[in-house]
Amino acid sequence: MSSEDYGDDNLFQSVPHHIGIIMDGNGRWAQARGLPRLAGHQAGVDNIKRILEESVRHGIKVLTIYAFSTENWHRPPDEVSGLMRLLGLTIQRQLKELDRNGVRILHSGRMDGINRHLQKQIRHAVEFTAQNDTIILNVAFNYGGRAEILDATRRIIEDGLDPAALTEERFSQYMYHDLPDPDLIIRTGGEWRLSNFLIWQAAYAEYYTTPTYWPDFDETELRKALEEFNLRERRFGRVLNP
Ligand code: IPE
Ligand code: IPE
Ligand code: MG
């Protein structure tokens, strides 16, 4: 799964380098079918592969997917444990293929609270794919934007950084990963909010939201989001053509 295999579509003038996806609507997708919520989460996991492959075709280099938020611990215990189990199973089943396809896996989030075995699986997935460079799949799991900013601040204080030397660039280097900021944030499932996702990094991202539930968000839906992104005029506070 490299861009060469699929051929570059070159459909768009500008393609986001980094997309963040708030994969919402799994529960409602399942409810609409009379299925348990966890069946929706399974369908959501299955959908990642198709969007990942389509992203590679478009030349997107980083995909950050919101899989479990620090607030999601407040869900019923069986849903929480189901989501934990699903991550472990997915790593177990998909890691080899992801690696073969050149996917580099990163994890953004806190390890605290995640059981030791799953922590080991996450670390293994990251190490196993560390040399890959077709696309980065950054999995935001037990992730909160506020927690990330707090964790960064703690490490800055521990490092004894001179307050006068602290810049936005330096601060960014203390985030879970020093990736380029997302250009586009996609939210499925119809809500218009960030829900604590990449609140530092998305300061100048373009936002796109669709009522489509995540398991139904297919290649065509991604193209629609990319089309919309192409129509946006990114000014970063400047006046264009003064
Ligand atoms: C998003 O789907 C996935 C996670 C939060 C893990 P939801 O489970 O929030 O689905 P809805 O919003 O209830 O439909
Ligand atoms: C955001 O979805 C978190 C993930 C997609 C993992 P939620 O369903 O948890 O967000 P809220 O509760 O609607 O804000
Ligand atoms: Mg939701």
Please provide a written account of the structure.
Helix 3 runs parallel beside helix 4 (77-100) and helix 4 runs parallel beside helix 5 (116-128). This protein has a single domain, classed as Undecaprenyl pyrophosphate synthetase (3-Layer(aba) Sandwich). The chain is built from eight helices and six strands. It has helices at 3-6, 26-31, 37-58, 77-100, 116-128, 145-158, 168-172, 219-231, and strands at 18-22, 62-69, 103-108, 135-143, 184-187, 206-209. Helix 5 links the parallel strand 3 (103-108) and strand 4. Residues 1-8 have low confidence and may be disordered. The protein has a six-stranded parallel sheet, with helices on both faces. The longest helix is centred in the middle third of the chain and has 24 residues, at 77-100. By secondary structure, the protein is of the alpha/beta class. The structure holds 3-methylbut-3-enyl trihydrogen diphosphate (2 copies) and magnesium ion. One 3-methylbut-3-enyl trihydrogen diphosphate (IPE) binds at residues 22-24, 66-69, 72, 191, 193, 195.
